[in-house]
Automatic annotation (TrEMBL):
Pfam families: ABC_tran (PF00005). It comes from Planctopirus hydrillae. InterPro entries: AAA+_ATPase (IPR003593), ABC_transporter-like_ATP-bd (IPR003439), P-loop_NTPase (IPR027417). GO terms for molecular function: ATP binding; ATP hydrolysis activity. The keyword tRNA-binding does not apply. Keywords: ATP-binding, Nucleotide-binding, Transport. This is ABC transporter ATP-binding protein.
Amino acid sequence: MSLHNVTHRYQGKKALDRVSFVVEKGALHGFVGPNGAGKTTSLKLVCTLLQPQAGRVRVFGEDVVDNIRKVRTMIGFMPDHFSTYRQMTVNEYLDFFAAAYGLPPVRRTEVIEQVLSLVDMNHRQNDLISGLSRGMQQRVGLARVLVNDPELLLLDEPASGLDPRARIELMDILRALRSMGKTIFISSHILSELAELCDAVTIIDRGEIRFSGRIGDLLTNPQNRHTLRFEFAPGSADMRESLAQIEGVVSADKSGEGAGYRVEFDPARLDANQLVVRVASLGVPLVSFSEDRRQLNEAFMDLTTAGVR
Ligand SMILES: Nc1ncnc2c1ncn2[C@@H]1O[C@H](COP(=O)(O)OP(=O)(O)OP(=O)(O)O)[C@@H](O)[C@H]1O
């Protein structure tokens, strides 16, 4: 799936400004941004509910305007607000959507069994949707998106309003769907919620893309490329001076409350392996060392602007 130079205005007001990014086939790709950033607008363009005013949107190579019917067979869109069919049972609800996709009655029964088993809701088939918890309703919403066996799932804030357990269970279902070969594009306000789950992430703010790529690349701070973090055993003596005296070390600062240090070094005089060997031979037990990576929240705050749009 890809957006190329997409601009979208509502009554003259720009909601998306030359937005371009790619979601690889088979990936679980996160879409993160604060309120009003343009996430729902982008999702609506991909799922053909809105037409691009400028730029191109493609789903597995098919243009959403030129090949709208084909695109619709390939996608499943779960909006952020659950539909109003609350007085239907789970079974009636799914049967309704399966019929809308043109599945004959016998096939519908089969498909409903399959999608409910994927989201582990077979035992609630005859319950009214209004009587289900938010987490269960989300599962039914996901089952609904799966009835036409789409290749691309577009999920708008599926985890909002879920308790931590329901969130974790939802993430497990999404991982299972990815392993079945589905491409999943999922939006959220919260970067850390998606970081564990996703292969890649796109960050949008005020209608502009701020980052699109692997989460690891987002966390590697280019300014800190030559910095390692060391954690010594709790209760160790202050190590700043010993660290600073290692040849090639530019600075050594405390990091956090415990015995953690950020050590910046000059790559022309010392490489990371040599630094680790020197630090380990200081005679103070070393608990861990790692590349200094920016915290997710820090990265997100750097890339987005304060205040609601
Ligand atoms: N139908 C509409 N008419 C006018 N303006 C709209 C409409 N839909 C969205 N907007 C505006 O477009 C901008 C982007 O909105 P969008 O819903 O795409 O953001 P979002 O990232 O999904 O936000 P949220 O996280 O709050 O759902 C916002 O400024 C919003 O007010």
